[in-house]
Amino acid sequence: MSTPTPDVLIIGGGVAGLTLALDIADHLSVMLVRPAQDDQGASRWAQGGIAAVLSPDDNLEAHINDTLVAGDGLCDTEAVRFTVANGPSAIQWLIDKGVPFTPETDPDARYPYHLTREGGHNARRIIHADDATGRAVVETLLDKVAQHPRIMQRNDLTIVSLSQDDSGRCRGAYGSDLNQQWHSITARHTVIATGGASGLYQHTTTPTPSSGEGMMMAAELGAQLMNLEFQQFHPTCLFDPEGPAFLISEAVRGEGGHLLNETGQRFMLALDQRAELAPRDIVARAIDTEIQRGTLGHVWLDIRHLGTEAIRHHFPTIQAHCITRGIDITQQAIPVVPAAHYSCGGIATNLQGATSVINLYAIGETACTGLHGANRMASNSLLECLVFARSCAQALLACAQKQDKGLHRDEYRPPAQPAASAISQSALKDIRQRMRQVMSQHVCIVRSNAGLKTAMEQLKALLNSAEGLEGIQAAPEGRRLIQALQLAILTVLAAQQRRESRGLHFTTDWPHQQPKPTASMLSSMHLAPGTMK
Predict the structure, then answer these.
(1) 172-188, pLDDT tens digit by residue?
(2) Residues 229-254: pLDDT tens digits?
């Protein structure tokens, strides 16, 4: 079944996808495939805010330098400068759209909105909407998208692969609707904005995280993947084995929160002069070490000393949620653990979001722009979404002025659909759970050669098991599971190839850094049948 041909097909509806849609829809027709689960995606759950140079007391060079330091030698300097330089205008765009950022109450302040500070930043430059910035931004942009007549939203499709013509250009995508009917969407340009790969891990900061399916769809067409080994683990996720994932924002430490071990002692002071405000990789490893030493399975994040009024003012969402979990953060320290949070690697792109495949773009967490390097600095993620979505929009608009309007259409003939009973949902769930356990055990905060070898063997076995299930390629959930397993294998391969410890990749066998850091580049070629044995 075919659908109308838009100028631009956007797959994914977080901050990056919504921003792009709004920036081009006055001039180009847009189809935004935004499944219902995007409402619970990473963008909405971003609490802390957006980093940008907004105060007269701050400057672009300081933000650039802080980002380069956090990236541990692997940032692309041009990408960092481009992002930081375009940050203020991106924030103004959000303000103009009506995002309700928290105002500054200090009459002597030199910027009208409250700015907080987070780990790795040497200035207050995080603009926020209380402690639910992502939700405020997504809801504001969604409302604008719903009102725009040239944006067609599809909430009923699950995209599982991309299409290309004989010359290798991307020509759209294939997906299945809620009735298991297949659809071919032909588009002049296709943009992947499907999020990262935190869903490869057992413990995450997002209730419904992506598992890198968009990355693998791009790789299947020949796009390069970069720096997959750099998976960021947020230091402070609420510890509650029986409940859903919930992030405790970096801003909690930015406003003065203390990390305590199980004896009630601060442990960051002895490890880094920045203490709790050290970059996330340092803090996450320190917490992991304390957990291994102790018996509780977590550490404590204490903000009681800030006072009830300050806690209620700065962290109303966190306070309200913790109350539902039986924790009064004005009277009790918060039990926290590190959890998979953000993928610094992904589909390699240029400054306009273009991939190595013609007519295919990637923006947001699914892309690897070079901004983050080996470790993302707090609150640079939503900034990247905004800046690169707006840059991609300009490239698409410029391309529309000169592009050949002829579009070759290839009809998609999906594989025959199996009977409903042919695919065991329990088998798919079991394989996915085992994949997450393997990744969390062997490809987590601290790694080793032996652990990575074990992970590779077990993941290949799981992939072989999945591919052996009858009808799996014809079922959307089956295709997505195979893509997740393939990306997990590529992640392990990237980790094995990096013979050093850098940023988020720390291995006990290579504890030191190489003198000349390089990015890791992989593609679907590394998943050739012979490599899966």
Answers:
(1) 999 988 888 888 999 99
(2) 999 998 999 998 778 888 898 889 98
| Category of 73 on φ-ψ map: left (φ > 0), alpha (ψ -120 to 50) or beta | left
Helix ranges restricted to H, 25-127? 42-45, 60-70, 77-97
Contact 82, 88 (CB under 8 A): no
Q: Are 496 and 515 in contact (CB under 8 A)?
A: no
- CB atoms under 10 Å from CB of 426, counted, come to 7
Please give the backbone phi and psi of residue 140, each rounded to the nearest 5 degrees, phi first: -65, -45
- Please name the amino acid found at residue 147: Q
- Kindly report the pTM of this predicted structure: 0.90
Q: 280 with 205: CB under 8 angstroms?
A: no
**Separation in Å, CA 443 to CA 40, 312, 437:** 25, 37, 10
DSSP 3-state of 531: helix
Order of strands across the sheet with 115-116? 50-51, 126-127, 115-116
Return the closest-CA partner of residue 54 out of 13, 87, 22, 79.
87
In degrees, rounded to 5, the angle at the alpha carbon of residue 57 between the alpha carbons of residues 53 and 58 is 30
Enter the tokens of residue 333: 């320290």
Which CATH number is 420-532's, of 3.40.50.300, 2.40.128.110, 1.20.58.100, 3.10.120.10? 1.20.58.100
348 beta partners: 368
Closest CA to 215 of 103, 123, 343: 343
3-state secondary structure of 503: coil
List the domain boundaries for the chain: 242-338, 420-532
**pLDDT-derived band of residue 415, with 50, 70 and 90 as boundaries?**
very low
Is the separation of the CB atoms in 245 and 353 below 8 Å? no
> Where in the sequence numbering do the catalytic residues fall?
280
